[in-house]
Amino acid sequence: MKPTKLFSAGALALALAFPAVATAQTTPASAVDVFIGTGGDGHTFPGATRPFGMIQLSPDTQVRPFRQSYPWAAGYRYEDDSILGFSHTHFSGAGHSDLGDVLLMPYSAETKWEPGYPERPFSGYRSRFSHKDERAEPGYYAVKLSDNEVDVELTAGERVGLHRYRYAKGAEAKVMLDLRSSIYDYAAKNLWSRMRVRGDNMITGMRETRGWAPGRQLYFAIQFSHPLVSRELRNFERDVEYKGFAGPGSGPGDKAVVEGKALAGALNFGVPADGQLEVKVAISAVSEDGAIANLAEMPGWDFEAERKKASAAWNEALGTVAIEAQPEMRKMVYTALYHSMLAPSLFMDRDGQYRGPDNQVYQAKGFRFHSTFSLWDTYRALHPLMTILQPERDVDFVRSLIASQQESPYGILPVWQFHGQETWCMIGYHAVPVIADAYMKGLKGIDGEEALKAMTASAEYGPYGGLQYYMKYGYVPIDLEPEAASKTVEYAFDDWTIARMAEKMGKKDIAEKYYKRAQNYRNSFDVKTGFLRAKKSDGQFREPFNPVLSNFGSDYTEGSAWQYSWYMPHDNAGLIKMLGGDAGLQNKIDQVFDAKVDENVYAHMEDISGLIGHYAHGNEPSHHVAYLYNYAGAPWKTQQRLTQVVASQYNTTAAGLSGNDDLGQMSAWLAFTAFGFYPVAPGSNEYVIGRPFLDKAVLNLPNGKHFTIRAVGLSKENAYVASVTLNGKPLAQTFLRHDQITAGGELVFTMSAEPNKEWGKAINARPYTQTAY
Questions:
Q1: Might you name a Gene Ontology BP term for this protein (predicted)?
Q2: In terms of domains, do 236 and 331 share one?
């Protein structure tokens, strides 16, 4: 297949084909690099979406056709050099593969029903591409498909993805629509699917899948800017038994409706006069009619107008923070903010209908239903960040969680929910701290009674995760339930947030009950070894004990004793006492960071990455650890460790995230840390002060006020905090309250090359903790 002159012009032709949106290079969106995290273990995608958008339209580069694995959890890897197609649903940074719904691939030569293999060019509809011919920014993605001779551009509304294809002069405009494709093994995943031709420029359909979440239903409506000249719809399941795509299909290609488990369609639009074809794809969890109605979100065929709307939406969302910093750091932090605004994602039709966890259809009233909650990760920093920057959206999240509890067949809050369906992934009942944190901060629109009822229902649901044993023994016994040590301490923290909220609501008996349960972490802490350990139902710690061991199904969840022994963020003074005082905690955390660890120790654990000693920044249990020195009167050590973490765990390359972004948690950590503070204990209404990494950041708050953070004398050498003022007055405390931020004002750090070892040493300067010092 010989490229035409148009397509051999390389990057210059791409620049002409994909003109930049006329925006100043100083806009927040222009500072974002959407390719950060698309390599290594970041698992992010570079495609087009809106802030928290339902459509997340992105290229998929799976190495083997329809055989997805962990590295391709987001569908795209920067290391790959061929594209399978462009699908409309993706996870950003998840540690599990799924989605990749409704894949489209434009081409112009003969129809090939197989995707083919990257090492065999032209073996299928897959096409090679080069990064020099690829461009992306928030809300927009473009690439030249070198084998297929098509220039592709993508942009998105909230529920609609818009494609623009430019074909070679005189070439037929063809599109492969593949419902077999997904970021998963289709043979195991597809329960049923349908394609329905409606007139000469629309196809609708659906897929029901049993991937990560069983019984997930997704409907779509595809509208084309030109009428179909011919079409062929095939069902491959009869001939191939889910093993390949070499069979001839199961019927003639002129059917208006085809159903089955392995559907694909070859669509031909002839030779467009302008060489272009545009395609709109709307999705719905409710029905094909719902998807058709969602198309009204994007009337007309003005690609540039829709691209500008997407860019404007991102500038508005990212514009909640104005950043002045060195170029690399500015790019890293704006990209972190971008990644923190991809999920939870909108998941309801324009009329407010959505599909709940019981697979029934519901109507959202007074809120916008969202799904895709990676709660074990995101309760730590992402949701607290939204309480500052996007409080109205966070209220939508909270109300979506409560609605899901009311609609759940189990009567509990989501654990790890996507597209309305429960996956039961990870541990804890971490919707609870998300709700409590928002309520404690006074976010409007949350029904406290409904919320507390949902929270306690989850905390009392015995069949889930060994809770019946936790309530009986005061800890989770390892001989009765796996990952027992981790579950014990995570349940204890969640219980504390229930107590905090109940106390604020005046429910004293509930508060007392859960404050008591919040102390259960002590039952699994071994003061002799100084580690959190799994305990058996007879009250004895399990032997033998090795603090480095970390296996799924053992004592800990995605970690070892070295990562989990510091997880009582609501009661760090209690931890300090168990470790023998301030020096005990400081020495223990020093050991975490300074240990000489053989790189093979955690090699069998793909989620333990970003190691600094035993500190594993690539996974969430470590995320608060550097801030613990503040509780022991040594914030200068926190500053020292944060410098070490940021320098080694983040950069502006495709592999710029040390672990899975986990739907924004890894990025939210960087955003908070760059500002100079972090929510160690969501629900405390406090942020622990670290050190800033930005010369200046202005938080443009939704209430119209501004909170400015300045770092005087910040440089690579001046990495320590000499002093801090808040609104012109010296700040003795090593924490900020949420109301101090939302009131507006100015926080000024004076930086130094030498640590100030006296600041924050006093007991009354330290952050909140349940146990008194």
A1: carbohydrate metabolic process
A2: no
DSSP H/E element including 143: strand 140-145
Residue 160 DSSP label: E
| Residues 328 and 245 grouped into a single domain | no
Q: Is 291 helix (H, G, I), strand (E, B) or coil?
A: helix
* Cβ–Cβ < 8 Å for 315, 241: no
Q: Tell me the C-alpha distance between 115 and 86, whole Å.
A: 12
Average pLDDT over residues 566-574: 98
In this prediction, residue 550 has a pLDDT band, given cuts at 50, 70 and 90, of low
**How many Cα atoms occupy the beta-carbon half-sphere of 745 within 13 Å?**
15
Check pLDDT > 60 for residue 32: yes
Closest C-alpha to 694, from 708, 680, 678, 679: 708
Read out DSSP for 434-461? HHHHHHHTT-TT--HHHHHHHHHHHHT-
Burial environment of residue 5 by CB neighbours within 10 A (0 to 12, 13 to 18, 19 or more): exposed
Q: Which domain does 753 fall in, by range?
A: 321-342+582-773
Share of the chain above pLDDT 70, in %: 92
Q: Into how many domains does the chain fold?
A: 2
Residue by residue, DSSP assigns 52-79 as T-S-EEEEE--SSTT---GGGTTS--TT
3-state SS, 596-643, equals CCCCCCCCCCCCCCCEECCEECCCHHHCCHHHHHHHHCCHHHHHHHHH
Read off the pTM: 0.95
Q: The tokens 């690399």 sit on which residue?
A: 328
DSSP-derived secondary structure for 664-687: GHHHHHHHHHHHTEE-SSTTSSEE
Residue 117: per-residue pLDDT: 86
What is the distance, to the nearest Å, from the Cα of residue 177 to the centroid of all Cα atoms in its chain?
A: 27
Q: Is residue 653 part of a domain?
A: yes
